[in-house]
Amino acid sequence: MSRGRRFTSLESYEKALKEGIGFGSGEFYQPWLRPQDFTRSSGNRSAVRGLKTFRQHNMLSGIESDFFYLAEFNDSVIDIREQFPLLPLTLTQNIARIINVDHPALRRQAGQKGTPAVPSVMTTDFVLTYQNPDGTVRYQAYSIKSDEVITKRNAEKQEIERLFWEGINIRFQIYTGSETTRTKSNNIRWVTSPFRMNGLPDYQPETGLVRLFPPGNYALNHMVRQIASITGADIDTALDLLKLMITTKSIEVDMTFNIPATQVIVVLRNRACNIEVVNENH
After folding, report:
1. Of 7-16, 124-133, 221-230, 255-264, which range is least confident?
2. 24, 70: one domain
3. Domain housing 246
């Protein structure tokens, strides 16, 4: 992991911007903030290699990780940018002035008392790029918050953030998650884990293999044994093949309950069979 960077002045912002921090898309985007930039460890921070962007994504909390997996598994999402800077700085400063709240500022270092506060660059947790059915794209910004009462000060900063995105005609939404979304996220993490290091393989599971599992309920170990028997693969490889089918959505499964814990897979739709079942939880 690269060493942390410190923002201590307007000059440090300019240096970061010249280095492309906070700009770009896909594999070339660099988030404004990363876990290693914080000297004090708090929260469940993690780094996950993206299957769509082919870069490392940096999450600052467990709920951010949950959101990331859900976003990446959404077929309409084509890019995910975390810790997106709200620039230019003068825009958030003007918004704060208009609504009569203090703009966030950098923490003063020792010996800096009495000097003017340096305004900090605000960030939005995630900005997603969606591809519409007609091929056009749209953007949506998300603030990730745990489901709890926020302080007055955090509400003020949230309002600056909301007005920033509203002012440039981009939808802004607060995501708090739920027990169901956490379960879905954990399932996505489980099925995609074999492909994080090297990305998805170039090949697709054979149609005949996919056809083995039309919509219905299956014991996980039974599916794995069937795949191993037909392909001649060992059990671990057969499990990865099943996970590949789910990751690529050759078969679409119910993600609303804990699959590794229950060892049950409910197939909702099989693309090779072109049939599906109705599931109220899906």
Report:
1. 7-16
2. yes
3. 195-276
